[in-house]
Specification:
Elements: H1 6-26, H2 34-37, H3 40-52, E1 59-62, H4 69-78, E2 87-91, H5 100-105, H6 122-125, E3 130-134, H7 141-153, E4 155-156, E5 165-166, E6 170-175, H8 179-184, H9 190-196, E7 199-202, H10 213-228, E8 234-235, H11 237-245, H12 251-265, E9 270-271, H13 273-279, H14 292-310, H15 315-321, H16 326-336
Parallel strand pairs: 1-6, 1-7, 2-3, 3-6, 8-9
Antiparallel strand pairs: 4-5
Helix pairs in contact: 1-4, 10-12, 11-13, 12-14, 14-15, 15-16
Length: 340
């Protein structure tokens, strides 16, 4: 474990305190009320994060997309003794397989075509801090084997190099897949799983903590006002009921997007069930459920609302994105009951 001077420790503590407040806000609660007001599921998760964070144990974060795995990883780092060190994120799914080794471990000049200079990899960049391996199940077999060796030895070698380099990193991994299934199918190594799964933490989906939704929505609307000057709409009890009844396949990330859409389309206005129905995705109908016209209208409504949200509420820009003209888009919006 690296030793930091007193000023660095104080800085780390300040960052940890700030992040705790941010974590509380991200769940829709003030820091003082977070423990008492949050759902039981999130309270258990927060308590486990606070218990594990001061250790150097490897953590495996498991949860659906949009549940806040990166936020939890950052909390583990910010509340740890490594808080003054770097927090380096690796999106395993976004790295081409032929470049994984170079990205993870770095390379020497001339190691391969295009390697015009020495480059440090993510392990070296995270030395003294935390390495967050997001979507770790997307790593290929070769990358998994090299990651396992790095964990076991505490050393890495750059591509094209011959000198072992000692690295001191805490590894936090995350996945939205069932690794038991991946191992049974031969797509994920058992030995790597056991190395990463020292302390598993499950991030509950939003549908399992619906009581958090009203305060989460209030937080997201307030944040949009503070950051972008968007006047927050007023959510009526009927609207909150509709939000809590929705199944949220995209979890907290989807709720944040819906709140942004509401703030763009209905700034400062009262939101009831009707307005909310216009922005919430319609449930997928059964094969024989609903007339063709109704299902086509629901699909068209979703496309238009998504384009308006991406265009910041600008109808002309939304029309351009949809490859139509503005008068035609206005006519379709009026027919579908979409207000500007």
């Amino acid at each position: 474990m690296p030793c930091y001077p007193f000023c660095a420790v104080v800085a780390g503590m300040s960052r940890a305190f700030a992040f705790t407040a941010g974590l509380a806000k991200a769940t829709g609660h003030s820091p003082r009320r977070a423990r008492a007001a949050s759902s039981a599921a999130m309270r258990r998760t927060r308590e486990l994060i606070e218990r594990v964070a001061p250790t150097d144990a490897r953590v495996l974060l498991v949860g659906e997309s949009g549940t806040g795995k990166e936020l939890a990883a950052a909390a583990l780092h910010a509340l740890s003794r490594r808080a003054a060190g770097p927090f380096v994120r690796v999106n395993s799914a976004a790295i081409p397989r032929e470049l994984v080794e170079s990205e993870m471990f770095g390379h020497e000049k001339g190691a391969f075509s295009g390697a015009t200079e020495r480059r440090r990899g993510r392990f070296e960049l995270a030395h003294g801090g935390t390495l967050f391996l997001d979507e770790v199940a997307d790593l290929g077999p070769e990358a998994q084997a090299k990651l396992l060796r790095a964990i076991e030895s505490g050393c890495i070698e750059r591509v094209g190099g011959t000198t072992p380099i000692a690295v001191d990193v805490r590894i936090i991994a995350a996945t939205n897949r069932d690794l038991e299934t991946e191992m049974a199918a031969g797509r994920f190594r058992h030995d790597l799983f056991f190395r990463l799964n020292v302390v598993p933490i499950h991030l509950p989906p939003l549908r399992e903590r619906r009581e958090d939704i009203p305060e989460l929505a209030a937080h997201f609307l307030a944040r949009l006002h503070a950051r972008h000057g968007l006047r927050p709409p007023v959510l009526t009890p009927a609207a909150l009921d509709r939000l809590q009844a929705y199944h949220w396949p995209g979890n907290v990330r989807e709720l944040a997007n819906i709140c942004e859409r509401l703030a763009i389309l209905y700034p400062g206005q009262e939101i009831g069930a009707r307005e909310l129905a216009a922005v919430l995705p319609a449930p997928a109908p059964a094969a024989d459920d609903g007339a063709l016209r109704d299902r086509l209208d629901a699909y068209e409504r979703r496309l238009i609302l998504a384009a308006l949200a991406e265009a910041g509420g600008n109808v002309a820009e939304a029309a351009r994105r949809l490859r139509t003209d503005r008068p035609n888009l206005y006519r379709r919006m009026r027919r579908l009951g979409i207000e500007r």
